[in-house]
Design goal:
Order of helices and strands: HHHHHHHHHHHH
Number of helices: 12
Low-confidence stretches: 17-40
Mean pLDDT: 82
Helix content: 55-70%
Distance between the termini: 56 Å
Structural class: mainly alpha
């Protein structure tokens, strides 16, 4: 059996869709399909010619095929975890989504690209696998300071969507009480934590959360810190390259 390249498969799907459309509508557009050049395939312009329901189905099939190809061609752990997570986020089948995220969680648990799998399984009682709050917090401590804030935000949003108890929300955020705020965006997290402490009548923790919120508000923005770090690394790389040239 001849295996078509991805672009050829996409072209085949589009042509089939167009044939179906033309036949069902009894429309004869001379050369509309036969003139398609697979080397100059423009998916968006071709899809725009299809009616809504058919367009959505064809677009889904094409994107699915492209994501499958990304999984097939992934070589590094980062590429594999990213490709599998992208497919899991996209696919409609809940069982398949769980299967894909489980593959990421089991095979690539210690890299930042596993974050979406951790979020998916966080307190997920409907799946075979479940990531506890303690395990999730331990995982995000391994991330960079920038990824850590993003992961914390995603994790808390997941818990809120699950409507978990205030006690569990406190458990998720309480480690921040022992952490100096790294940038201003953390003020949102400390405000949430202060509110939770107030509702749970944890007066000492409430006062500490308020103080840390004030501290974070005087800290630099995340974006500012990131840009400064990238600029510092760029200069270090340039200096290292110049030093190599001078030593030749």
């Amino acid at each position: 059996m001849i295996k078509l390249p991805v672009k050829g498969k996409i072209l085949a799907i589009l042509i089939s869709a167009f044939v179906l459309y033309f036949y069902s509508e009894s429309v004869l557009r001379q050369g509309a399909v036969s003139s398609i050049d697979s080397g100059k395939l423009n998916k968006d312009s071709l899809l725009s010619e299809l009616p809504g329901a058919l367009r959505d189905e064809v677009d889904y099939r094409i994107t699915y095929m492209q994501l499958q190809e990304h999984i097939r061609t992934a070589r590094t752990d980062i590429q594999k975890a990213t490709a599998l997570s992208n497919m899991a986020d996209f696919i409609k089948d809940p069982a398949k989504r769980a299967e894909l995220f489980l593959e990421v969680y089991k095979n690539y648990p210690n890299i930042p690209q596993a974050l979406r799998a951790y979020v998916y399984f966080l307190e997920n009682n409907s799946s075979k696998e479940k990531v506890s709050i303690a395990d999730f917090v331990a995982y995000i401590q391994t991330l960079s300071i920038y990824d850590r804030y993003y992961a914390l935000s995603l994790g808390f949003t997941k818990l809120r969507d699950l409507n978990v108890s205030l006690e569990k929300r406190y458990e998720f955020l309480k480690h921040l009480l022992k952490t100096k705020p790294e940038f201003r965006e953390y003020s949102n997290m400390y405000a949430l934590l202060a509110d939770i402490c107030s509702q749970l009548n944890k007066q000492e923790e409430y006062k500490l959360a308020i103080e840390l919120e004030k501290t974070s508000l005087s800290s630099p923005m995340l974006e500012t810190m990131y840009v400064e770090e990238m600029e510092r690394k760029r200069k270090e790389t340039l200096e290292a390259d110049q030093s190599k040239q001078e030593n030749k």
